[in-house]
Amino acid sequence: MSLEDFNSLTKKEIASIRREISDIIVENGWDAVEGRFGISIMKRAEELPGVYCGSYIFRSEVYFLELFSSLKKISNPLPGAYVFYSFTNIRHMKRVGELDIKHVGMVNEDGTVISKWGNGHVFKHPIMCVPCNYGEPEFFE
User: Fold this and answer.
1) Strand, helix or coil at 14?
2) Residue 99 has pLDDT above 60, yes or no
3) Residues with Cβ < 8 Å from 15, sequence gap 6 or more?
4) Would you say residue 137 has pLDDT above 60?
5) Which of 62, 106, 115, 135 is within CB 3.0–4.6 Å of 86 for a Cys-Cys bond?
6) Rounded to two decimals, what is the model's pTM?
7) 3-class DSSP state for residue 40?
8) Beta strands 99-107 and 113-116: pairing type?
9) Could you give all domains of the chain from N- to C-terminal order, each with its CATH number?
10) What's 89-103 look like in SS3?
11) Rounded mean pLDDT of 16-38?
12) pLDDT of 49 over the 80 cut
């Protein structure tokens, strides 16, 4: 599925794909999403034991918390912009400002995102193509 194809989907279709991604991971593991919905493995989980999305993108959770307060929210992300996925009504990780952050990634040169999924692999994926429990994306620089 190309980025253009994914961008033309309705919210309902995207939600269905995100549920399917989550189900695939639960039933078959991280490797099973490779090649599905434009998702590719960039680095295997075994290479990054104990590393999660925030510490992968920011190299440390402490640095992430310090950096977040200086970031500006943007609507048109360029390569290198941060993507924070959140639910406004769910407190999952650390509460930072007005955003309850569930997941973080970085926009790639081709408009996809590079992010580490939980204790799984680092994936390259379309912006909205993440597990259903990650929330909606917001962009910052």
Assistant:
1) helix
2) no
3) 132
4) yes
5) 135
6) 0.85
7) strand
8) antiparallel
9) 3-140 (3.90.1720)
10) CCCCCCEECCEEEEE
11) 96
12) yes
**What is the separation, in whole angstroms, between the first and last Cα of the chain?**
28
Amino acid at 33: V
CB-CB contact of 118 with 40 (8 Å): no
SS3 content of the chain, % helix, strand, coil (to 5): 35, 25, 40
Calpha distance 138→87 (Å, rounded): 10
71 close to 64: Cβ distance less than 8 angstroms: no
Q: Give the model confidence (pLDDT) of 50-93 as tens digits.
A: 888 888 888 766 666 677 777 888 888 999 999 989 876 333 44
Main-chain dihedrals φ then ψ at residue 109, nearest 5 degrees: -60, -30
Q: The tokens of 84 are what?
A: 């924070």
Query: Which two tokens mark 64?
Result: 């992430």
Burial class (CB in 10 A: 0-12, 13-18, 19+), 129: buried
